[in-house]
Amino acid sequence: MGSTSDVGRRDLIKRSAALGLITVPAMSALSACASGGDDDSKKVDKGKKSAKNPLAVNESAALDVVIFDGGFGQQYAKDAEAEFAKAFPKTKGKVKHSATQKIQTVLQPRFNGGTPPDLVDNNGAEQMDMGTLVGKNQLTDLTPLLDAPSVDDPNKTVRETLRPGVAEMGQFDGKQVWVLYYAYTVYGVWHSKSNLAKLDVEYPETWDDMLKVCEKAKKKGVAGWTYPGKYPYYLPFSLYPFIAKIGGRDVLDSIDNLEANAWKHPAVKAAFEAYYELYKKGYILKGTPGLTHIESQTAWNEGKALFIPNGSWVENESQKTTPKDFQMAVGAPSSLDKSDKMPFGTIWASGGEPFIVPKTAKNPEGGMELLRIMLGEKSTKNFIKQVSSLSSLNGGTDGLSLPSGLESAQEALTKAGKNVVNPRMQDWYGTLQKQKIGVGALGEMMAGRMTPAEAIKKCQQFADDTAKDDAVKKYKHV
User: Fold this and answer.
1) Which of 5, 325, 363, 415 lies 20 to 30 Å from 26, alpha-carbon distance?
2) Pick from 6, 3, 355, 349: which is nearest to 146 by CA?
3) 161: part of which helix (H) or strand (E)?
4) CA angle, corner 234, sides to 9 and 264, nearest 5?
């Protein structure tokens, strides 16, 4: 979900799974590994708790870390692991680092065998379904980490240093925190300020203006929009906050809660019809349904399209093809009309890059300690400089020169104020969000193979099927 988390930027999801009518590997994998319990006999002995070692880490035990090698790469994690080895010199040479884009494929056998890593960056197209992991009791409660003193200020707990809502995102039901989202992602309509200036236009704050800008671009041979057609679950990054802006955040909450007829809300209909109009008027870059995330971002960087729905990891992920004068920026969803329930500036921002400590990890204290180090100012600044993204530490940008995209993300957050939404579908029901709603409905609609009414009907059907599935643990906004 970056991040986002990310989401997207992964291996090909075949069109044969587009309608979500087959069982996805991640679900079967988790069902297979769900029988494994907590075997304390395999865990390393705890160390001695102290001011410098508040989590009682075994100071000589090995540490096993698996990182998703996506938009943020893996160097930031390697650097934090080096800091871990400095803090615990006897672990030098014992920190095992692995990186992959195939999280589920690589880790399924290890979960099945009761030998998972100590810390996992669980992201990507092969992300293990978080709701299922929690429901099957496969994760370690991270409350001890959150209640531990922070690296930089012993008078503040780690929890007290996090951005608002980050700890709560790791809760699924009850007070336990099962996931720590390390990045802080700003989602929206990404664009180039310089490319808009070439057309003598500004970012459109209303949908009527959005259509006018797209029409003007079309006359110049430039598409209005593109998106990862092979991974159309990127579309919600701008579509979901658009729905909330039109109808209020309660609309997204009801969708997350799998409520009957939630997808039939007038705000959903209005948003779907607005996006479908982009297709009908020829404002989508030709060939977009066949593009990967990298291909669509490259086309956008090359000025073939003005707008792309994405998360703030895009600045780092697309840097090799981004022109120096691009002036990358993120825009909040345009206003549909004056009856919108939320003001312009409403945006989706939330924790991304989900880290987990498996229940049967040998060294869970070591995994949590590495996260504690990552949430210190030194590691945070290193992360920001390397990948052009905020972390979940509330701060860390002092003294840093921010690139244009990250600077605009900061500005967007400031402008949004309290009008920040955080839909949980991708966290609670990853398969429903990606393969079904994303690929099987939104992707079909934006490719012109479904009407908005048909897509809404399909989304509601997918949601209803999930609500009725006793094998899927359910979560609700409180």
Assistant:
1) 363
2) 355
3) helix 158-161
4) 155
Tell whether 193 is covered by a domain: yes
At 396, list the tokens.
Answer: 């860390």
Domain count of the fold of the chain: 2
Which amino acid, residue 337? D
Dihedral of CA atoms 172, 389, 158, 421 in degrees, nearest 10, equals -40
- Residue 25 in domain: no
Q: Do 273 and 175 share a structural domain?
A: no
- Distance (Å, rounded) from C-alpha 270 to C-alpha 167? 33
pLDDT 10s digits, 166-178: 999 999 888 999 9
Element (H, E) at 111: helix 103-112
Contact call for residues 69 and 75 (beta carbons, < 8 A): no
Cβ-contact 73, 319 below 8 angstroms: no
User: Quick one: DSSP state of residue 285?
Assistant: P
377 and 324 belong to one structural domain: no
Full-model pTM = 0.81
Q: What is the residue range of 77's domain?
A: 63-183+350-401
Amino acid letter, 223: A
How far is 360 from 288, CA to CA, in rounded Å?
A: 43
The maximal CA–CA distance of the chain, rounded, in angstroms, is: 69
Using DSSP, state whether 283 is helix, strand or coil. coil
- Between these two residues, 446 and 124, which has the higher pLDDT value? 446
Q: Give phi and psi for 65, each to the nearest 5.
A: -125, 135
Smallest CA-to-CA distance from 308 within 214, 387, 429 is with: 214
The answer to whether residue 248 sits within a structural domain is yes
Q: Which of 274, 217, 236 has the alpha carbon at shortest distance from 439? A: 236
The Cα–Cα gap between 283 and 61 comes to 57
CA dist 429 → 112, 137, 158 (Å) = 22, 16, 28
Q: What's the pLDDT at 279?
A: 98
Rounded Cα distance between 81 and 83, Å, is 5
Q: How far is CA 6 from the centre of its chain?
A: 3
Question: What is the CATH number for 103?
Answer: 3.40.190.10
Half-sphere CA count of 409, side-chain side, radius 13 A: 27
Mean pLDDT over residues 300-314, rounded?
A: 97
Q: Is 419 exposed, middle or buried (0-12, 13-18, 19+ CB in 10 A)?
A: middle
State the residue for tokens 């100071």.
59
Is residue 70 domain-shared with residue 134, that is, in the same domain?
Answer: yes
pLDDT tens digits, one per residue of 266-287 = 999 999 999 999 999 999 999 9
